[in-house]
Amino acid sequence: MAPVRCPGPVNRREFLRIGSLALGGATLSDIAAGRAAAGTLNSDTSVILCYLHGGPSQLETYDLKPHAPVETRSVFSPISTSVPGMDICEHFPLQAKIADKFSIVRSLNHDVGIHSDGGIIVCTGKRPAVLDPTSQSKSEHPDIGSIVSRVRGGHRSGMPQYVATPSSFYFTRPTYLGVAQQPFVVGNPAAKSYAPPELKIAPQLQERGLDDRKALLKQFDRFRSDLDLNEALVGTDDFRHRAFNMLTTPQVAEAFDINQEPDKLRDQYGRNMWGQSFLLARRLAEAGTGVVSLMMNSPKSGEEFTNWDDHPGNAGRPGHFATFMRTRLPYLDQALTTMIEDIWDRGLNRRIMVVVVGEFGRTPRIRKGAPNDSVGRDHWPNAYSALISGGDLQMGRVIGATDSKAAYPVESPHSPQDLLATVYRHLGVDYTQQFVDYGGRPISILPFGEPIAGLL
Asked: What's the predicted TM-score (pTM) here?
C-alpha cells in the first residue's frame, strides 16, 4: 500500500514586521487590557523554544544508531562530545564541544504523525479531538506562550511576555484566553528592513507629534477593528495609554535592537534568519520576555534549503534527504551553540531555559519515493529527541533511550506533556491551574505530565 502523501507543514503568510504594530492580530490596547485583567505577576525566568518545523530525524541529530541495519542506520556518523557517552551527529561539531552545557532527552513520544496536530500536542499538551491529515488544523487550546502571557500579566519593564520570531505557530491560537495573549510577531531580524519598534514608529510620531496620542492610539485600534473579541477584553483609555507606552519605552526598543550587538557576535550567531533570530531571542529573554518562540523552517531561501520534513521529495524537491540536511545542520549548530555559550557567559543559564524540539521524529526505515526515486524518512511520533540547556537544570545528561532502531523508547519514556511540565516548572507556572473555556468548562493547563526527573 502506497504511503499517504504528506502535504507538508503549512507555511505562514509573509512574516509580520515589527513595525506593523500587529501582535499576532491583536491591537496594542487589546494586549494591555488582557495583561491588566490577568494581573501583574512578574518573574525573571524565561524560555527560548526553538521549534524545528517539520519534524527532525532523531537518527540524524541526537540519537544515531551506527550499528543498525543499513536501511535504518543514520546516513551520518556519530562524533564524541565533551561528555563521555553522549555521541551526536558529525555535523554538530560546535555543540559537541559544549555538551556539558546541555542535556538530551531521547525518549520523547506521542501518537500523532501529522504536522499541525503533532505541533498542537507538543506546544499545548493537548491532543486534538479530531485529527486533520491535511495539516490545516488550529488548536482548541492555547499554547505555552499564551498561557504564560495570561498567567504572568504585564512585565514591569513593558516587555511583551510572548514573542514569536520570525513567525508565530500557524497551528495554535489563544482561544478562550482571549486574543490579547497572542504573540508579538517580530518577523525576520536578519532582514535589511528590520527595525526595533520605537525606531519603526518614530516617523509617525514625528509627523503627528507626541502630544497627539489619542489620534495615534485610534490608529492602532483600526488595525483590527473588525476583530470579534468575544467580550474577552475591555478597552479603556488607561489600557490604551499603557499600550502606547510599551512601544515608546526606551528599554523595550533597546531589547529589540540587535544592532546594539557587536558585529563580531552577530557574525558568530550567523548572518541569516536563524542566527539573528537566536540572537534576538537571547536579548528578549534577558530583558524579561517569558516565552520566545522560534519557528525554525529554513535558515535561508533557495533550492538547496528545505525545512525538517525530510521525507522523499520534501518541498517537491527531488534528491536525497542527507543532501538537504548536510546543508541545513551547520546553520543550527552555529546559531544554537553560540546562543548557549552567550547565555552561559552572561551568567543567564539559571534564568533562561533553551528547548530545541520538533513535532515528531522520523521513521527507522529509509524510503525511496516520488519524485525521481528521492530518498528520505517519513513521519514518526513514536520516538524523537529534544535538547535542553540552562534553566538551572542538570546538564551533560542523556535522558532515556530508544531501541536499536530508534523506533520506540525502552528507557524512561517521556511525553510532550512531561517536557512542557518541565518548562512550566522553570517559569513558575502551576500547570494544574485551570481556565474556563468557551463552554464554561474548567480546563487544566496540562491534562497530565510531570517534570522530567532526570533533569532536576
From this structure: 0.86
